[in-house]
Amino acid sequence: MNAFRFLGDMTHLFSVLVLLLKIYATKSCSGVSRKTQELYMVVFVARYMDLFTDYISLYNSVMKVVFITSSAAIVWCMRRHPQVRRTYDRDQDTFRHVVLVAASFVLALIFNERFTFREICWAFSIYLEAVAILPQLVLLQRSRNVDNLTGQYVLFLGAYRAFYILNWIYRYFTEGHTSRWIPWIAGLVQTALYADFFYYYFLSWKNNVKLELPA
Amino acid sequence: RSDSVEHDEL
């Protein structure tokens, strides 16, 4: 464990807590893409399958449980909670996220560390996580006004993978040049997708105006 | 190398 990875995990955890706070405090999920939340739930289930088979550390196991249960709780709220589900922008959240699932799966069949069920699921979860934010970014561009908590949620979510890239650079130089090209490339794509959001978020912060993404 | 790749990151 190094500082970059710990910072990345905490930023990731924080993004989930911010979203849970927004939904719980405002009893509203307006501006939040349910499709992105469903994709994240698939990402965590596919990646943390080894939760019960491989014990790495208490921290690792606890965080896996937290990410799986929180993403499931958010999806449940957006689908079943009587008050919250009414505020879901169904007709704005139109990204065909099934395409992302299919493309990630095909990619995982071709590019993986080992052609085993677990490794294909792991690679699938890495590729899917890289593009899972797309429905949310499209929704932000459509729903002009981005409330602060949703904006902060996306900001922390983008920052977490950027910390992981620093973590991979650190591990590359300290632990021997192990090839981690799958998360490397997917992580770079993932962070790049946030680039324009970071840019407009920074402008809105600098000019102290509401965050608005150009359509 | 062990048969399964160990993924120690989240």
Tell me about this structure.
The complex is a heterodimer of chains A (215) and B (10). Chain A is mainly alpha-helical. Chain A contains 10 helices and no strands. Chain A has helices at 3-26, 34-47, 58-80, 82-86, 97-110, 117-131, 134-142, 148-174, 181-193, 195-206. The longest helix of chain A is centred in the last third of the chain and has 27 residues, at 148-174. With 10 residues, chain B is largely without helices or strands. Chain B has no helix or strand. The N and C termini of chain B lie far apart (21 Å). The chains are: A mainly alpha (215), B little secondary structure (10). Chains A and B meet through helix 1, helix 3 and helix 6 of A and loops of B.
Measured by DSSP, the beta-strand proportion of chain B falls in under 5%
Query: What separation lies between the terminal Cα atoms of chain A?
Result: 40 Å
**Counting H and I runs of at least 4 residues, what is the number of helices of chain B?**
0
* Average pLDDT figure of chain B: 74
Q: Tell me the distance between the termini of chain B.
A: 21 Å
Query: In terms of per-residue confidence, which ranges of chain A show pLDDT below 50 for 5 or more consecutive residues?
Result: none
Shape of chain B: rod-shaped
Rg of chain A:
17 Å
Major protein interface: A-B, 20 and 8 residues
* Classification by helices and strands of chain B: little secondary structure
Put simply, the count of helices of chain A is: 10
Strand segment count of chain A: 0
Largest sheet of chain A: none
Largest sheet of chain B: none
Regarding quaternary structure, how should these chains be classified? heterodimer
Q: Kindly state the mean pLDDT of chain A as a whole number? A: 95
